[in-house]
Design the sequence.
């Protein structure tokens, strides 16, 4: 497929998306009959379907650029995206591929007769009740360790795409998404036999911190076990 053909296809698909939220929805004149039911357009299936098409189109465009990119671009340093966050006094990194989003802290509603020590309860995520787990408990960290800081620190909730559905993991602080060189991660992974700690691929130096790189597959399996 030529570059012109690919771009034309992307443009055509974009034109086919009806952005009703900008006309009759929350960003328009609010005349949509479904608005009273859904409160906000982001809760509507029409909005979700449009978002999916947009993401599919973006993915297609990225694959197209990668396929037709000049050979010189392939020489760029390989990296992997990690979400870097803090629990107590420990900084951790988790690959962004298993992450749905990061949201502000919300109320956690405890559940009666819960059997898992890691299960904190449920939290409301976009109108749906989602299980909330303690990552401190899952990783076997010391819950009494705290960090004082002169700057303002905002706790966050990581929403992880677990095997059975989304799961909320409260964390003390989020630094953001960072691209870490694959060779750095490989070195940390190869020295993993010297690293203690649950679900850990390795430990690496990041900025002036010691960063624990989590094994996402082991962690997701532990999350599943905690919910069954």
Sequence:
């Amino acid at each position: 497929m030529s570059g012109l053909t690919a771009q034309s296809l992307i443009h055509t698909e974009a034109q086919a998306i009806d952005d009703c939220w900008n006309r009759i929805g929350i960003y328009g004149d609010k005349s949509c009959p479904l608005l009273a039911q859904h409160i906000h357009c982001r809760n509507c299936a029409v909005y979700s379907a449009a978002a999916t098409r947009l993401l599919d189109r973006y993915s297609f465009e990225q694959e197209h650029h990668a396929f037709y990119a000049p050979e010189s671009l392939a020489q760029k340093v390989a990296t992997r995206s990690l979400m870097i966050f803090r629990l107590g006094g420990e900084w951790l990194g988790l690959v962004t591929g298993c992450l749905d989003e990061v949201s502000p802290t919300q109320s956690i509603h405890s559940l009666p007769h819960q059997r898992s020590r890691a299960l904190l309860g449920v939290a409301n995520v976009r109108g749906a009740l989602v299980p909330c787990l303690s990552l401190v408990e899952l990783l076997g960290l010391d819950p009494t360790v705290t960090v004082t800081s002169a700057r303002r620190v905002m706790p966050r909730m990581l929403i992880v795409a677990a095997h059975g559905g989304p799961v909320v993991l409260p964390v003390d602080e989020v630094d953001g998404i960072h691209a870490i060189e694959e060779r750095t991660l490989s070195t940390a992974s190869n020295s993993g036999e010297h690293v203690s700690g649950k679900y850990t691929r390795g430990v690496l130096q990041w900025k002036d911190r010691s960063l624990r790189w989590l094994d996402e597959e082991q962690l997701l399996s532990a999350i599943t076990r905690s919910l069954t």
Summary: Residues 6 and 193 are 47 Å apart (CA to CA). Residues 3-72 form one domain. The two ends are 47 Å apart (CA to CA).
